[in-house]
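PROTEIN DESIGN WORKSHEET
SECTION A - STRUCTURE
LENGTH: 298
TOKENS:
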């Protein structure tokens, strides 16, 4: 090989190693990943995601209710991310008050383990915020015609207090499938399962569908649907008790099944959080004063 060819080869190699500032495609999966945040506080490190209010004017943080309840402080840190003009990604942690005077600032769904809270930072403080329309409605869940075994994806921070995928600490995406029937959930079964490894810290993470395939007998379009269909709230275990001569204990086995609340429940919770926020903005209406009683002396 001549010296000229060696130089050209080196230029090609170093050119490949000098990665451009922007190397990702910003499709729906990237949008969901960017909108997913780590929520950190003493006693609780888990997952949440940012979504715009129905009007588009505010930003709401959604997570599991038990994530907020486990916090031992009155504020938490929400890990956001930014990108500068050169394309460099950076972490952008923000403080968020979760209690005031001992009272929770988040809103819990009356029947489910999901919560929402308005945040003081705007969409410009994070790479992305999910649009309200990304949360599937009851009608859209039906129109998807999800079948047992259809592939879904989840995003979260497994063991977020100990594990991070890299120094930027983006969430981790996992692939699983719809593991239960019926879908959408009904009054008899208000949650559904996905076949996906789930760990402490994943609670509050979004579950979504992306480019579902068409199939004979189904009305859905091929490569259609990009929607959030639920939120992870728990996982299933099998516990085995053992008793020996000098000790006893318990073995816990993960079943690799995540428990998911449907997106309809998320929408209801966000809407309630918006109503609560608006009601607090309304000034108290002063009560009309009764006219003073006039008395006369004779």
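SECTION B - SEQUENCE
RESIDUE ASSIGNMENT:
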């Amino acid at each position: 090989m001549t010296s000229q060819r060696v130089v050209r080869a080196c230029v090609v190699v170093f050119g490949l190693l000098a990665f451009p500032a922007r190397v990702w495609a910003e499709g729906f999966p990237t949008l969901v990943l960017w909108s997913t945040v780590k929520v950190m506080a003493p006693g609780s490190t888990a997952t949440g995601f940012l979504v715009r209010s129905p009007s588009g004017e505010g930003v709401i943080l959604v997570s599991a209710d038990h994530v907020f309840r486990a916090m031992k402080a009155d504020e938490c840190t929400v890990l956001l991310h930014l990108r500068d003009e050169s394309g460099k990604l950076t972490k952008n942690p923000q403080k968020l008050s979760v209690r005031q005077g001992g009272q929770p600032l988040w809103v819990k769904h009356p029947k489910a383990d999901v919560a929402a809270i308005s945040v003081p930072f705007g969409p410009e403080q994070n790479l992305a915020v999910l649009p309200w329309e990304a949360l599937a409605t009851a009608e859209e869940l039906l129109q998807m015609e999800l079948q047992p075994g259809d592939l879904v994806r989840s995003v979260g921070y497994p063991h977020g207090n100990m594990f991070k995928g890299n120094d930027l600490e983006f969430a981790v995406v996992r692939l699983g499938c719809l593991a239960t029937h019926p879908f959408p959930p009904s009054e008899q079964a208000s949650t559904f399962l996905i076949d996906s490894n789930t760990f402490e810290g994943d609670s509050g993470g979004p579950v979504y569908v992306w480019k579902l395939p068409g199939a004979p007998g189904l009305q859905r379009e091929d490569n259609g649907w990009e929607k959030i269909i639920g939120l992870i709230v728990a996982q299933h275990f099998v516990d085995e008790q053992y008793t020996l001569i000098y000790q006893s204990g318990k073995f816990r086995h993960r079943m690799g099944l995540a428990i998911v609340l449907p997106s309809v429940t998320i929408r209801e919770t966000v809407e309630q959080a918006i109503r609560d926020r608006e009601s607090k903005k309304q000034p108290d209406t002063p009560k009309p004063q009764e006219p003073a009683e006039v008395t006369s002396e004779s």
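SECTION C - NOTES
The chain has one domain: 22-280.
Residues 60 and 118 are 5 Å apart (CA to CA).
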